[in-house]
Design goal:
With 244 residues, this protein is of the alpha/beta class. The protein contains eleven helices and five strands. The protein has a five-stranded parallel sheet with strand order 2-1-3-4-5, with helices on both faces.
């Protein structure tokens, strides 16, 4: 199965017209369902080479990751092999983009550090791992604390690392409400404005106002937007420090 390469069966419409983004997205999802990492990589690589890797990320990879994540949340049918493959496909493409960025003149300097993790009692790691991959590819120094992280540990590690942004993930409403303890811990230590709280996960996409309810400084609907959010929050925190 690893030898599968882009072709007619992968949804390509011919050399003159080229593959449509809809066909490629479906073909990549099918490869993931077959746990075919190399096949998914080949499809994304071919599309990125023709249309640009930044376009591939925004138009193909990010929507695929969102659709796969939503399917996992609604049905719980994603196997361990499929979970592994989708995370690795994201890592493969982001690593390739990071390598191309490093080779380009005037590449971005390292950013960060930032801290990410799943809140206490939450074990849905896929979204967090994809976020970490996206952040690292964009030059961020990422400290990933893993699953089931208590509020105090988030803040302890952020202070220890000199981070300005904590990213906390939750899949379900019951665990999302646990993030409020991170907000309270930041405020209790007098770090509000200097240490900012980003939240994410499927529940925040389907529950408007939840991020504000638990005291987050920002949220994003997908990993690509989350990278931009981390940048904005970092700049906001830096400005706060300059003024004080």
């Amino acid at each position: 199965m690893d030898d599968i390469s882009p072709g007619k069966d992968a949804g390509l419409s011919g050399p003159a017209q080229g593959p449509s983004s809809v066909n490629i997205k479906q073909a990549v999802i099918e490869r993931i369902q077959m746990a075919d990492r190399r096949g998914a990589d080949a499809l994304l690589d071919a599309w990125g080479a023709e249309h640009g890797y930044e376009n591939m990320l925004a138009e193909i990879l990010d929507p695929v990751l969102t659709e796969v994540g939503d399917e996992w949340r609604s049905s719980g049918m994603l196997t361990l092999a499929q979970t592994y493959v989708v995370a690795k496909v994201a890592e493969d493409m982001m690593s390739k983009m990071a390598g191309r960025s490093r080779q380009a003149p005037g590449g971005q300097p390292p950013k960060g550090p930032v801290v990410i993790g799943n809140i206490e009692e939450d074990f849905h790691a896929l979204g967090r791992k994809m976020l970490g991959t996206f952040l690292r590819a964009q030059g961020w120094d990422v400290l990933d604390l893993g699953n089931d992280v208590p509020a105090a540990v988030f803040v302890d590690k952020a202070v220890e690392a000199g981070a300005r942004v904590i990213g906390v993930s939750a899949m379900m409403m019951s665990t999302a409400r646990n993030i409020k303890a991170v907000r309270e811990e930041i405020d209790r230590r007098g770090l509000a404005g200097r240490l900012l709280l980003a939240v994410g996960g499927a529940i925040f996409r389907v529950t408007p106002g939840l991020a504000e309810e638990i005291g987050a400084d920002g949220t994003a609907g997908n990993a690509l937007d989350a990278v931009e959010l981390f940048g904005r929050l970092w700049e906001r925190s830096s400005g706060m420090e300059v003024r004080t």
